[in-house]
């Protein structure tokens, strides 16, 4: 068939479906076109048509129009379902693999507008973004995917790095990316997701999770979806994110899970203090993560550190509103990877629920926390400036009421000053079965209502020095750091 075409231009793969399907000329036309990304590879070309059309090679195209399925830019594979109306509804489904190379990358720069993205805040630009990714991955040279000023709506984006040969892809964002507001229809727990990516960087721009509708649902009902994290990297390496703003996430703002060698700098995160479960930066099962020069205001932990995290460096951040910087919660499962070598240095906490916190569930676990440094911190009206809570349970129901199996050791609190919003500035509530050990408090000076804040210790072993001696005098427990 001479009109069968799968042709390319510099930016678009144009699929002419009119001559691929055989329909009577009196066919009323296409009633619905559903176009979705399949992923994977090696799917054979396959065409299913109603039995009365299956072997009739004399049928001629009877489409009213095919323009709605043109300009599909360079994606590796598509599932195209076309429903026809023959008086009764029947269907045709085609699964086809692209047989042509990815689009050419001109001069190492891909502008998503040239791939069909529209900055009107309404038109779904998911396909242009994924087309840009496919093109960048096919290049042997560094590529910048450029997002100009404007508001671009993206329903959901998934960037698979396992088959991406390019290890130097930069997203330069001058505009704002908008998440969908119909949170109940999302099938993904991450809005913009990278998996098994290497050498990806993101610079600038704003990600707007538009989570207010979901927050309202959670405030008024218990039967709400959990929502989606805004940006997530999974099992990825050599990641750099700089100058990025994330606002109003449905759930976590930024997630690093199973990653190595990550740098986040100049990050701005913003959500109301009452927005539920909107952790700013969440790290778990990752090593070599650095967070620098960032401002985080949200409704949950500014930075949360989960199991399997090691060699983390967090410096020069401000937190508030929020729940502080937390290691945990840990110990929910009996077999759990530990957390070690974590440093938080030069940070300011403003009107937060906690300052620096280690939290574990009161149940059996082989988890651990060791080698932690909290240094050069300023507290401004913080409810719990320094806290270890090994009886963590955020609700009143389903609390385990056991003894925490997580061991906590070698934690240094040094040069911490400011004001507590409660009379207890340091609370160390450790496990009776596994007391905290190697706790060091050096030069900790916290006040409450113009007098020294108290220290409360349970099953905590360690030493004090510097200004902390004056604070320890007001302890509520004789077992404090014995």
From TrEMBL:
Transmembrane intervals: none
One Pfam match: Glyco_hydro_28
Compartments where located: Secreted, Cell wall
Enzyme active site: 323
One BP term from GO: cell wall organization
Organism superkingdom: Eukaryota
UniProt KW Cell wall biogenesis/degradation keyword: yes
Database matches in SUPFAM superfamilies: Pectin lyase-like
Keywords on record: Cell wall, Cell wall biogenesis/degradation, Glycosidase, Hydrolase, Secreted
UniProt xrefs under InterPro entries: Glyco_hydro_28 (IPR000743), PbH1 (IPR006626), Pectin_lyas_fold (IPR012334), Pectin_lyase_fold/virulence (IPR011050)
GO MF, one example: polygalacturonase activity
Family: Belongs to the glycosyl hydrolase 28 family.
PANTHER family: PTHR31375
Name of the protein this chain belongs to: Polygalacturonase
Source organism (scientific name): Lactuca saligna
Upper lineage: Eukaryota, Viridiplantae, Streptophyta, Embryophyta, Tracheophyta
């Amino acid at each position: 068939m001479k009109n069968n075409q799968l042709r390319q231009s510099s930016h678009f793969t144009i699929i002419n479906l009119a001559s691929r399907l055989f329909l009577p000329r009196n066919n009323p036309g296409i009633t619905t076109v559903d176009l979705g990304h399949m992923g994977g590879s090696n799917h054979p070309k396959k065409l299913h048509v109603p039995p009365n059309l299956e072997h009739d090679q004399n049928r001629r195209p009877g489409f009213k129009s095919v323009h709605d399925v043109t300009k599909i830019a360079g994606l590796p594979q598509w599932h195209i379902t076309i429903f026809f109306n023959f008086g009764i509804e029947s269907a045709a489904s085609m699964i086809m693999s692209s047989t042509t190379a990815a689009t050419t990358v001109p001069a190492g720069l891909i502008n998503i507008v040239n791939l069909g993205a529209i900055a009107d805040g309404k038109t779904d630009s998911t396909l242009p973004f994924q087309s840009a990714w496919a093109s960048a991955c096919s290049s042997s040279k560094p590529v910048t995917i450029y997002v100009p000023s404007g508001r671009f709506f993206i329903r959901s984006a998934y960037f698979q790095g396992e088959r991406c040969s390019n290890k130097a892809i930069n997203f330069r964002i001058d505009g704002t990316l908008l998440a969908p507001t119909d949170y109940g229809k999302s099938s993904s727990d991450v809005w913009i997701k990278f998996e098994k990516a290497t050498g990806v960087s993101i610079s600038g721009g704003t990600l707007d999770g538009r989570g207010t509708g979901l927050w309202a649902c959670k405030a008024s009902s218990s039967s709400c979806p959990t929502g989606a994290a805004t940006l997530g990297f999974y099992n990825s390496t050599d990641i750099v994110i700089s100058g990025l703003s994330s606002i109003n996430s449905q759930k976590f703002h930024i997630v690093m899970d199973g990653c190595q060698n990550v740098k986040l700098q100049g990050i701005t995160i913003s959500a109301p203090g009452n927005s539920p479960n909107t952790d700013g930066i969440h790290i778990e099962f990752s090593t070599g993560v650095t967070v620098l020069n960032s401002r985080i205001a949200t409704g949950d932990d500014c930075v949360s550190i989960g199991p399997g995290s090691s060699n983390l460096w967090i410096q020069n951040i401000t937190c508030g509103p929020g729940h502080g910087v937390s290691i945990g919660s840990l110990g929910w499962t009996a077999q759990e990877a530990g957390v070690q070598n974590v440093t938080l240095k030069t940070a300011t906490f403003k009107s937060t629920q906690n300052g620096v916190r280690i939290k574990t569930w009161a149940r059996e676990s082989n988890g651990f926390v060791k080698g932690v440094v909290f240094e050069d911190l300023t507290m401004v009206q913080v409810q719990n400036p320094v806290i270890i809570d090994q009886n963590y349970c955020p609700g009143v129901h389903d609390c385990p009421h056991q003894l925490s199996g997580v061991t906590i050791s070698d934690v240094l609190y040094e040069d911490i000053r400011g004001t507590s919003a409660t009379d207890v500035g340091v609370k160390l509530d450790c496990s009776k079965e596994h007391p905290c050990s190697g706790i060091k408090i050096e030069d900790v000076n916290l006040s409450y209502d113009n007098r020294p804040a108290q220290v409360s210790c349970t099953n905590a072993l360690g030493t004090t020095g510097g200004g902390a001696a004056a604070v320890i005098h007001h302890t509520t427990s004789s077992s404090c750091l014995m």
